[in-house]
Amino acid sequence: MTEQFAPPPSRGCSNTPVLKERGQHEVFCGLTGIIWLHRKMQDAFFLVVGSRTCAHLLQSAAGVMIFAEPRFATAILEETDLAGMADAQQELDRVVSELLARRPDIKQLFLVGSCPSEVIKLDLAKAAERMSAQFAPNVRVLSYSGSGIETTFTQGEDACLAAMVPVLPQTDARELLLVGALPDVVEEQAVGLLEAMGIGPIRVLPASRVNDEYGIGPNTLYALTQPFLTDTHEALQRRHATYIAAPFPFGEEGTTAWLRAIADQFGVSEAKFAEVTDAPRARARKAVAQASEALRGKSVFFFPDSQLEIPLARFLTRECGMEAVEVGTPFIHRAVMSSDLDLLAEGPTIAEGQDVDKQLDRCRDARPDLTVCGLGLANPLEAEGLTTKWAIELVFTPVHFYEQAGDLAGLFSRAVRRRDLLKLEAAE
After folding, report:
1. What are the residues whose beta carbons fall under 8 Å from the beta carbon of 233, sequence distance 6 or more?
2. I need a labelling partner for 410 at 20 to 30 A (CA). Which of 69, 106, 336, 389 fits?
3. All structural domains of the chain with their residue ranges
């Protein structure tokens, strides 16, 4: 097969001046990451140290689990804890001891900080260090912050994985590490494509179980599957692992470029690469073309929410024929985002951070055909006649790699088709 994806634009957005906003922002809590992380790590447990609000959030986000005891819970900070009338560290020791006595299957325990625990300066890192010494070698105890005070919700996963990197053993083996929690079926597709090229051994962070873990060292090469894993990227850099820079695997183009970057590091020939990827590439192109028909020529506006915004804007503009008006994202890490910024044609406003009132004004002035935003903004904007797409759905839905490329385009096109149908019904 000789067909290639479109050449990169003569001028991408890497050098576009970034509009940096530091005003009021709309964020969703980082504790949400537990909902997908606890499914990936089968012998881990996430203990949130927080309020009843934290417990209600997790229960609502995860749904009620009837047939299995979940691998997460909340250690509720009561009034006596918040007022300093009780020793919170002693109370935490008691709760953890009771938990581990009741759940001997736990091999890795995460103490997850929340807004309340951070406000009272509860030192969970100190607690994790103390508990690791107490319960070793049966249980490893780590801590990270899931607070949503200054972060976006996807940074919960980033903080969790970054906390895991320093405790992984040292190795000199040459291995590929795929970084990011993906649905099992998507992870299997990625690993299957790479193994078919002869690449290996392949490790995944997070591993399903502690016993499945591996080492990190100067011969470790790693590729990120999620653009929000910037702290994890920095932690791996401190372990002297080598980053494989590439566009993120959204759509046919992004997936091919991501796989090509890895294949180049492992000396895979062009012929072998084509043999493995030609058929799924063709399926992805066909699926995207069908699903994106309603998107072509339409404009899109991104509010900052998940840190997926820049790779998704690249996908929508280059593969689905849309025009990006503004691409807002919570944070821009140049080393992680440069490959996608290079492919995103110059034109849209690139905004980092948020001043929600100012961005709402720009969105209203632009009147885009589609607005990608958080739950809190979607209904008000719909009431004003704007068509919206919930950004959080793009995190909870399988959207990576070839076989999901059409589904990814469909998530956006369904919102546009729904609007067109409503207009048609109103006209009748």
Report:
1. 179, 224, 243, 333, 335, 336
2. 336
3. 1-25+172-428, 30-151
Q: Kindly state which CATH superfamily the domain 30-151 is placed in.
A: Nitrogenase molybdenum iron protein domain (3.40.50.1980)
The CA distance from 306 to 394, in Å, is: 9
Is 109 within 8 Å of 49 (Cβ atoms)?
no
User: 196-209: per-residue pLDDT in tens?
Assistant: 999 989 999 999 88
Tell me whether domains 1-25+172-428 and 30-151 share a fold.
yes
Tokens at residue 17, please? 């001046």
The CA distance from 154 to 392, in Å, is 9
Helix (H) or strand (E) run with residue 111 in it: strand 108-113
| CATH class label, 1-25+172-428 | alpha beta
Cα gap 36→41, rounded to integer Å? 9
Q: Is the pLDDT of residue 68 over 60?
A: no
| Residue 281, C-beta contacts closer than 8 angstroms, at least 6 positions apart | 1, 252, 255, 256, 402
Q: 363 among the known binding-site residues?
A: no
29 labeled part of a ligand binding site = yes
pLDDT single digits (tens) 388-426: 999 888 988 999 999 999 999 999 999 998 877 766 656
- Helix residue spans in 266-388 (DSSP H): 270-291, 309-318, 334-343, 356-366, 375-383
Closest CA to 184 of 401, 379, 16: 401
**Strand duo 175-179 + 202-205: pairing:** parallel
The pLDDT tens digits of the residues spanning 108-161 come to 999 998 887 887 788 899 999 999 999 989 999 999 998 876 667 889 999 999
Burial of residue 176 (CB within 10 Å: 0-12, 13-18, 19+) is buried
**Residues in CB range of 259: below 8 A, 6 or more apart:** 193, 194, 197, 249, 273, 277
pTM above 0.70? yes
Interior angle at CA 178, CA 174 and CA 181, nearest 5: 150
